[in-house]
Amino acid sequence: YLYRMPSGIPGDISRKAHSTVEAHILKGNFGAFGIFGKLTADGIVPLEAADTDVYGLIVRSYPTQSALNGIGAAVPQSGIVNDIMRRGYMTVKCNAGT
Which of 28, 75, 88, 98 is the most exposed place for a label (fewest CB within 10 A)? Predict the structure, then answer.
């Protein structure tokens, strides 16, 4: 994609003007973009079953430089700075229901 991602990709902010995004270091293994994480002293980590303190959603930044992942197969990399959406609207994958 030359200028922007098409609509509907998980982790893409859908209304950019109405969002609040912060940069944080990702720790732990996130399985996809567009999922929730919590803030710890080390950085953003994936939620666990009993967690109630949600910090934000993992944003799929665009453009990025990665020759390791195929189209639609990219996952957030641990140990690097990534964008976290605190407020706004994002495209996410619906795992159940419609």
Answer: 98
Distance CA 27, CA 37 (A): 10
For 3-35, the pLDDT digits (tens) are 766 677 888 888 888 899 999 999 989 888 889
In the chain, helix, strand, coil percent, each to 5?
A: 5, 25, 70
pTM: 0.79
Closest CA to 45 of 90, 94, 56: 56
DSSP secondary structure code for residue 84 in this structure: E
